[in-house]
Amino acid sequence: MAGRGFSAKQTSMPDGLYERDILVWSQHQADLLRRLGAGNG
Length: 41
Hints:
single chain, mainly alpha
């Protein structure tokens, strides 16, 4: 993909948004893994 560069533009996020998003994502992943482990996936 030559010619398709990505800029390293810094964007600011509200305080704690990243941490909350990661927490929600990780809880969702844990739920999916529990369901797969129980044979419900």
